[in-house]
């Protein structure tokens, strides 16, 4: 019987006489963890207290403009711009990714060129470029190149309103990044999956849609969630071409009332609220496309934080 | 006499400057089980993959049930078919892979119904009924709603066999179906294959299971360095080989 005991337990057994059932395990007490937690909480409380008492923050101004009509108009523009730019980015990005992976060397080179150009120049430059594109081409025409045949003809200035210019700039820039994410997703799928699908008589397009892309989604979604949250904040850049997004309108207000800090607080609160809301769909999508993997049953991060903190502190106390 | 299910004549294949197949002649009659054996790198898996055009043949003729695979003949030229045309021909050829290659985002049942529904246009209810019958046949009716990651290797391979059978193939290709399995799981998979052979399925099996080849195979083909070294009755080829290379190989694996 003694032979089946762990060597350490045998040593303890000698100390405790012949009653191993009375042995009690005492976990290490992490006094340092407690001290650090208390200090950090105190520092945060101090900062919040000083902010609350600071007269220069003008909480009344913040409260007033947080729900002002002009700010809501800006919010609506910011939201549709985010959604539309991400839609353009994802659709065009997927196309560019498929081109990049195609056996056609011309298509592959063109897609590399696209990514190189749009990822390699500052977004701010691209936004202003699209806003002033009329200086480059007065008219946009669709026709047959090198002939005089023209099907449609637009005046560039009336076509490229600030909103459209903003959408083009954000969407094309996003497409460059999205294409790399989609490409990585497609390449992460085992080639054996395509072979298996082909051996069942599935054609290339069906294989891509039913077998490869659903598996690639697992790799694509987390960075695309990042991109979406990034895009929501990046739309603030289009304030330089007065596209009437949230940031444009915030700037319009503080240009008149000089309440810069309170207005920036309004902007920050709204951006935070929206990015927080966006994390929900991402977690849902990740669970949906994680089907068939052990990680599918993952706990949402916020709940994990709360149960983690509560769990850790209580087990410490019990220990 | 009926035309053979697989007929290969001088099949050649090279990867870059490496000649993998140097003129393979092989015939598999309807309802027969042909086992391909040989050391790794001998070209047996490549030849198997050529049969359903997962690898392109560089020279020679390779026909399944009288049709060229992946090519259309006009005069003395062979024109490679489009992917979508090749897909049509692959429907009738089932394949089982060494690494199973089940679709991990689909359940066992969905793995089996995917191709009948999406490719053959079978309605969902019929496909489901047939899939459950096939899963029952491979002994996995109770695992229909499990995802591949929740199944053992042997179970995954049996689902893969059911998936291939769902397209009602006239020929089944097996590429080392038991090589990635733990030893105690090999038997279940071989039992399913034995059962299929007894049902009259035409099968080409790349395997290292000498016992299976001897017992179930109608012909055994020993390949080395891209050529067929000897072929014939498995009991003779594996029991009393004529060629030195075959003898040397068998003395290592037995």
Automatic annotation (TrEMBL), chain A:
Keywords linked to the UniProt accession: Amino-acid transport, Cell membrane, Membrane, Transmembrane, Transmembrane helix, Transport
GO cellular component term, pick one: ATP-binding cassette (ABC) transporter complex
Sample GO molecular function, one term: transmembrane transporter activity
Membrane topology of the entry: Multi-pass membrane protein
Compartments (UniProt record): Cell membrane
Family in the record: Belongs to the binding-protein-dependent transport system permease family.
Protein name, as recorded: Polar amino acid ABC transporter permease
TrEMBL record, chain B:
Molecular function (Gene Ontology), one example: ATP hydrolysis activity
InterPro entries associated with the record: AAA+_ATPase, ABC_ATPase_HisP-typ, ABC_transporter-like_ATP-bd, ABC_transporter-like_CS, MetN_ABC_transporter-like, P-loop_NTPase
Catalytically driven reaction(s): a polar amino acid(out) + ATP + H2O = a polar amino acid(in) + ADP + phosphate + H(+)
Coiled coil (residue ranges): none
Pfam families, per the entry: ABC_tran
Keywords assigned: ATP-binding, Nucleotide-binding, Transport
ABC transporter domain location: 6-250
Name the UniProt record assigns to this protein: ABC-type polar-amino-acid transporter
Species of the source: Kitasatospora indigofera
Source species taxonomy: Bacteria, Bacillati, Actinomycetota, Actinomycetes, Kitasatosporales
């Amino acid at each position: 019987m003694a032979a089946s005991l762990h060597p350490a337990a045998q040593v303890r057994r000698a100390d405790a006489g012949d009653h191993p059932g009375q042995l009690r395990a005492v976990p290490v007490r992490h006094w340092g963890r407690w001290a650090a937690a208390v200090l950090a909480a105190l520092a945060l409380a101090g900062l919040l207290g000083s902010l609350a008492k600071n007269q220069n923050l003008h909480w009344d101004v913040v409260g007033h403009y947080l729900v002002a009509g002009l700010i809501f108009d800006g919010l609506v523009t910011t939201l549709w711009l985010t959604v539309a730019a991400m839609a353009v980015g994802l659709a065009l990005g997927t196309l560019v990714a498929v081109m990049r992976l195609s056996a056609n060397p011309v298509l592959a080179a063109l897609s590399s060129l696209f990514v190189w150009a749009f990822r390699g120049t500052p977004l701010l430059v691209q936004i202003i470029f699209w806003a002033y594109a009329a200086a480059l081409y007065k008219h946009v025409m669709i026709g047959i190149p090198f002939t005089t045949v023209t099907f449609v003809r637009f005046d560039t200035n009336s076509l490229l309103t600030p909103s459209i210019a903003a959408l083009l700039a954000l969407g094309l820039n996003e497409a460059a990044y999205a294409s790399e994410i989609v490409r990585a997703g497609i390449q992460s799928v085992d080639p054996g999956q395509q072979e298996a699908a082909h051996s069942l008589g599935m054609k290339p397009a069906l294989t891509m849609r039913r077998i490869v892309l659903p598996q690639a989604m697992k790799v694509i979604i987390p960075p695309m969630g990042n991109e979406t949250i990034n895009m929501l904040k990046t739309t603030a850049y289009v304030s330089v071409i007065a596209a009437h997004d949230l940031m444009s309108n915030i700037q319009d207000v503080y240009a008149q009332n000089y309440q810069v800090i309170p207005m920036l607080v309004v902007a920050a609160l709204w951006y935070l609220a929206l990015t927080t809301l966006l994390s929900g769909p991402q977690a849902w999508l990740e669970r949906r496309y994680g089907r068939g993997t052990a990680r599918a049953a993952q706990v949402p991060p916020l709940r994990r934080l709360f149960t983690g903190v509560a769990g850790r502190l209580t087990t410490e106390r019990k220990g | 006499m009926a035309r053979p299910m697989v007929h290969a004549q001088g099949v050649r294949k090279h990867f870059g400057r490496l000649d993998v197949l140097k003129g393979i002649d092989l015939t598999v009659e309807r309802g027969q089980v042909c086992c391909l054996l040989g050391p790794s790198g001998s070209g047996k898996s490549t030849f198997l993959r050529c049969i359903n055009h997962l690898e392109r043949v560089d020279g020679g003729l390779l026909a399944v049930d009288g049709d060229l695979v992946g090519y259309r003949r006009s005069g003395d030229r062979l024109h490679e078919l489009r992917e979508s045309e090749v897909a049509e021909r692959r429907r009738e050829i089932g394949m089982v892979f060494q690494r199973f290659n089940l679709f991990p985002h689909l359940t066992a049942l969905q793995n089996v119904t995917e191709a009948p529904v999406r490719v053959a246009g079978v309605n969902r209810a019929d496909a489901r009924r047939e899939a459950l019958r096939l899963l029952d046949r491979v002994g996995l009716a109770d695992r229909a709603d499990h995802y591949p990651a929740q199944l053992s290797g042997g179970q995954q391979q049996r689902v893969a066999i059911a998936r291939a059978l769902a397209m009602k193939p006239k020929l089944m290709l097996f590429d080392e179906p038991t090589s990635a399995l733990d030893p105690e799981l090999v038997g279940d998979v071989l039992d399913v294959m034995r059962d299929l052979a007894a049902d009259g399925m035409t099968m080409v099996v790349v395997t290292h299971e000498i016992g299976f080849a001897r017992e179930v195979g109608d012909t055994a083909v020993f390949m080395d360095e891209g050529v067929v070294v000897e072929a014939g009755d498995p009991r003779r080829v594996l029991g009393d080989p004529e060629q030195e290379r075959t003898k040397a190989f068998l003395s290592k694996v037995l």
